[in-house]
Each structure stands twice: as C-alpha cells, then as structure tokens.
Fold this protein.
Amino acid sequence: MTIRGLPPGRAGRLWLDRRIGVARRAADVLDRRLRILAAHQARLEVDASRAEVAWRSRHAEAETWLLRAAVLAHRRGIRTAAADRPEAGIELGREVVAGVTFPVLVRFTVGEPTPSAAPAATAAADPAARACAAALEAAVRYALTDAAARAVRVEAEQTRVRRRAVADRWLPRLQDRLHTLNAELDEQERAEATSRRRGLGR
C-alpha cells in the first residue's frame, strides 16, 4: 500500500505514528461533533413537526375567519378593512450549533389598527386580522424551524461521511502501513544482526 510522503526507514515509523495520532484525534472530534449535531437534529425535527401542526391549525382558522368576513363584507369590504392594518414585524437572530448557523425568530409583532380602519371593519374583520397574524407567525416559525432542522441534518450527514473517511479508511490504511513497515524494519534489523555476527566470526 503506497502512502504519499512516507519517508523511508525508521523516519517512516515516526511519520506514521504522528499521523495515526492526528487521525485518531480527528475521528474523536468528528464523533463528538456528530453526537452534538444528532441531538440537535432530533430536537429541531420534533420542533419543526410541532410547528407544522400549529401552522396548519392557524392557517385553517384564518381561512375560516376570512370566509366569514367575505360573507359579511365581500371582497371590497375586506380590502377596505385591510388597508389601514399595520404590517407585521419580524426580528431574526442567529443560533450556532457545532458550527452550523441558522436564523431563529426573536420577535414577531403586529401593531394595532389605526382608528380610521374601525368604521370600515365588519364584525369579522378584527378576528380575521388576528387569525391571519397568528397564521403568519406560525408559518414563519415553521419555515425557520424546518430550515434549521434541514441545515443541521445536512451537516450531520457530511460529518458522518468525514468521520467514516477518517476512522474507517484513512486510519486503517495508516495502521496497516505501520504494521507492514514494522515487519520490514524488524526483518532488516535481523538481517543486519546476522551480518554483524558473521563479520565477527571471520
């Protein structure tokens, strides 16, 4: 088995020993990182599943209230009621897990409607607006949580591949080569010892 950069003789033994140590430490670091990522992945996937359920529930509720508002005020009434509604505000932060960065929701705000919207509003307009705001917040939470779970899942898989490359391929190659080199050096030392004995005998 050829390993590039391997010096000949006893220097090769030291070279291999150092690289085996590095490979073992790298495998340990990758193993720890994989455990951290797997734990966070499991948590995020549960959170994403719950966020999806919450979003679907809020979405259905918003549709129900919008239908009621449409029956009472028709589309023009809904547009008039919505005209002075404040926009939603979303503030995002960052979370870092084992080197993986993803956005998280810090604050979701919807201001109170301006007084000018009140006369145009129907009995269903305000509940519909609140239901739509709740559905929007749930959608944002679901989208962010699902994206975070996917990002951590991808990084965990890449870490798993790297760990396998080090622990299952590179480290065994180095150890096999060291074993072969030790056998070669032992044979060489025996041959040298035999040659010295013969020289002394003469």
